[in-house]
């Protein structure tokens, strides 16, 4: 009987030990998982691509200032085509459309005062607007409708909608032609339409955003 009692005592001790060890192992696993989660949360995502975004809401034609821009990491598969990766590259230029906070800046949204975005089918065309005082209301990025005064009276719509790309400054100290010279973005068809009114005064109306 003494031997049997020792066997039972050993079995009981093993049973108590077997109930205790899994709990310790489970607690250790939970602690390890918690630590891993904290490290994963605090570690920046190195796989992202940093692109330029607006850090505040911007109106169409707004000048892009460095304080209104920032860099944000986007997953590579979500990076828009022709995004900018340098704030300096777009600082001082203007937006062609309204931007909300966090919106990425792309070549189709940022106006280039000298050239169109690569691959664009649009054209840049200089147009002289008849009224200097009214032209003072214009800024890059605005959309306007062009009109022409006809020789026999009345007016006619020249182009329904063009986008202002640049206002050309008049040379100082030189008496130039009256009227504000602007560079506009338009289609080839609309450029041909504007050419039909060469020599006639061109006026405009600012379209709503």
Description:
There is one protein chain. With 209 residues, the protein is of the alpha+beta class. The chain folds into two domains: 49-111, Type Iii Antifreeze Protein Isoform Hplc 12, CATH 3.90.1210.10; 123-206. It has helices at 2-42, 132-135, 188-195; strands at 49-54, 69-74, 94-95, 110-111, 123-129, 143-149, 155-167, 180-186, 202-206. The strands form three sheets. It has a five-stranded antiparallel sheet with strand order 5-8-7-6-9, covered by helices on one side. The longest helix is centred in the N-terminal third of the chain and has 41 residues, at 2-42. The protein is elongated and about 120 Å long. The relative contact order is 0.13. The mean pLDDT is 75.
Short description:
The chain is built from three helices and nine strands.
Task: Map the helices and strands.
Elements: H1 2-42, E1 49-54, E2 69-74, E3 94-95, E4 110-111, E5 123-129, H2 132-135, E6 143-149, E7 155-167, E8 180-186, H3 188-195, E9 202-206
Antiparallel strand pairs: 1-2, 3-4, 5-8, 6-7, 6-9, 7-8
**What is the distance, rounded to the nearest whole angstrom, between the alpha carbons of the first and last residues?**
98 Å
Oligomer class: single chain
Unreliably modeled segments: none
Strand arrangement, major sheet: 5-8-7-6-9
Largest sheet: 5 strands, antiparallel
Structural class: alpha+beta
- Report the order of strands and helices: HEEEEEHEEEHE
Mean pLDDT: 75
Helical fraction equals: 25-40%
What percent strand?
25-35%
Number of beta-strand segments: 9
Q: Gyration radius, to the nearest Å?
A: 34 Å
Overall shape: it is elongated
Number of structural domains: 2
Number of helices: 3
């Amino acid at each position: 009987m003494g031997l049997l009692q020792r066997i039972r005592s050993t079995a009981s001790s093993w049973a108590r030990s077997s109930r205790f060890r899994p709990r310790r192992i489970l607690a250790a696993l939970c602690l390890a998982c918690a630590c891993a989660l904290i490290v994963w949360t605090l570690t920046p995502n190195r796989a992202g691509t940093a692109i330029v975004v607006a850090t505040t809401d911007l109106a169409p034609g707004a000048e892009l200032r460095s304080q209104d821009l920032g860099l944000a990491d986007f997953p590579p598969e979500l990076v828009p085509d022709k995004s900018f990766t340098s704030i300096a590259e777009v600082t001082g230029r203007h937006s062609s459309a309204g931007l909300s906070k966090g919106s990425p800046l792309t070549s189709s949204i940022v106006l280039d005062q000298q050239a169109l975005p690569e691959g664009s089918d649009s054209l840049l065309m200089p147009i002289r607007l008849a009224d200097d005082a009214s032209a003072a209301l214009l800024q890059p990025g605005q959309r306007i409708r062009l009109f022409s005064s006809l020789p026999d009276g009345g007016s006619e719509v020249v182009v329904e909608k063009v986008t202002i790309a640049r206002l050309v400054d008049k040379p100082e100290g030189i008496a130039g032609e009256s009227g504000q010279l602007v560079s506009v973005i338009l289609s080839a068809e609309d450029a041909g339409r504007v050419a039909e009114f060469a020599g006639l005064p061109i006026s405009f109306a600012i379209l709503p955003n």
